[in-house]
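Board notes (copied after class):
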Amino acid sequence: MKGWSKVPLVALAGLLLGCGDDEAADGTGGGGAGNWGGGERKEAALPVKTEAVTKGEITRFIETHSRLEAERWVEVVSRAQGLAQRLAAEEGDQVRAGQILVQLEKEELLLQMEQAKVAVSQAQSTFERTQTLHERQLVSQEEFENARNQQENTAVALREAQLRLDYADIRAPIDGVVMMRNVERGDLVRTNDAVFVVADLEPLQARIRVPEKRMSQLRPQQAARITVDPVPGRVFSGTVRMISPGVDPTSGTVKVTLDVPPEGVLRPGMFATVRIVTDSRQDALIIPKKALLLETDEDDVFVVRDGRAERIRIELGYTDGDRVQVMSGLEVGDEVITVGQEGLKDNAPVRIVGGGE
């Protein structure tokens, strides 16, 4: 039995070996190894993102930074002394010139006013009697002049008392917004104490320094663009108000003052980026700045044509933020590669995925 059982096993092994030889001869065995040896390997297309060349306006500008300031910033000081009896304005209130901000107690001032009126009445009566007697030559010239001087002095004292009473109403000196209140009700306010700060915010101003070599590019009423971090994505307008006629010899710069309407958003003290537009070009060919290749000193981009990346030498014009002007080398509608161009070879196969970032 043991000798008989060996024959089928040997025969089965021969059959298996025979099948293996046939598959190798046909080129269909070996788990597909024949596909690698028998055909040409296709080069894989690299994924890229593109943006089309467009036409639009692009500008040249001077860019610098500044803090926004109020055109007028006035500390309101008290010209009288007394206790703060009533506060008539609060921080953030819009006020008009002459509007009462705080009232001081007036009882003592009113008494002084009444005393001054009585003194004026008495001096007037004395003067009239003395004048009558002087006309009759019953009093000397000196007595007459003393009576007249006394009348004038009491009249001056009355005006002073009236002025002190008026000063008890502390008023806004200009139209503007209350920026600070430095007094509380019941505080003792002394003469020359700063009790309020009022600022004129229409318009705000930005004072910048521009290199003297670019002074010729500036002129009054020139347009400017203002951006601030607290309001991202929004551009505010401004205009050049005045240009200093002199150059700072230390820094070699010229002081330029711009008017910036607050538009209900901007505030004094905000840190602003100021761009003064010095030239503008219409119908310019524009591409994203990120399309430029960084590995060379030349101005090159990759353009997708017929499924391949073609390296193009271009000539640049103005740069405006993340956009650049192309003077030559591209046409409207060309698809420039903006993502995936690093390390890309000329004429390499590519496939466009997604959209521009």
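Comment from the instructor: DSSP finds four helices and 19 strands in the chain. The CA atoms of residues 107 and 165 lie 10 Å apart.
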